[in-house]
Amino acid sequence: MIAWLNLAVLVLSSVFFLFFYVMSVSPARLERRLGEKAFRRCMHYRIASGVLEGVTVLSYVIYWLYPLPIGFPLVLPWSWLLSIAIALVIAAPSTYLMYIGVRDAGRETLEPKKEHTMYGGIYERMRHPQALGEFLLWFPIALVLNSPFLLLYSFVWIPIFYIMCVFEERDLLIRYGQAYEEYRKRVGFFPRKR
């Protein structure tokens, strides 16, 4: 019973995380309807998406404790130490990429502001460093928990984060106009060779 309930929480928290995050990166679109308070509302949406992401991480841990009784293998076919090593190889650069993205985005990471200008730093090399770093971190979590099901579920985050980035770019085009269009031509969605 706990395993099935947890699966429902896992799926629903993933879906609602996407919903609230997409809403949080839409201040310029919402401003057309709500005026100045749109930016503050987007901050609340961002906080809600963060809470839901935390619930999803908790669901990963609960799945490890209460796996689905469906005959799916309970552990990965290699040693747990190898899983941890692979997790560290993925997590170290992903965490660093997220850190650099948050540092260079500043307060805009959590609190969108109308007067905020476009970013510099890592954002001159790729448009979505935080998203790239963050979606990759789901794989190390699954690897540390040594769960084939969670490793497979982690692939769900690829389209989720891609959709989030697409919606964010739509709003940035409204917000910054031609300057953002020129930026998109100059800088890749994710890193690319120059």
* Average pLDDT metric: 92
- Count up the helices: 9
Radius of gyration: 18 Å
Fraction of residues in β-strands: under 5%
What's the structural domain tally? 1
* Coarse shape: globular
E-strand count: 0
**How much helicity do the residues have?**
over 70%
Annotated CATH architecture: Up-down Bundle
The major β-sheet equals: none
Structural class: mainly alpha
Q: Secondary-structure element sequence? A: HHHHHHHHH
Low-confidence spans: none
Q: What would the CATH topology be?
A: Four Helix Bundle (Hemerythrin (Met), subunit A)
CATH class: Mainly Alpha
Alpha carbon gap, first and last residue: 52 Å
Give the SSE layout:
Elements lengths: L1 H23 L2 H8 L2 H29 L14 H26 L23 H8 L1 H7 L3 H6 L3 H20 L1 H9 L8
Helix pairs in contact: 1-3, 1-8, 2-3, 4-5, 4-6, 5-8, 8-9
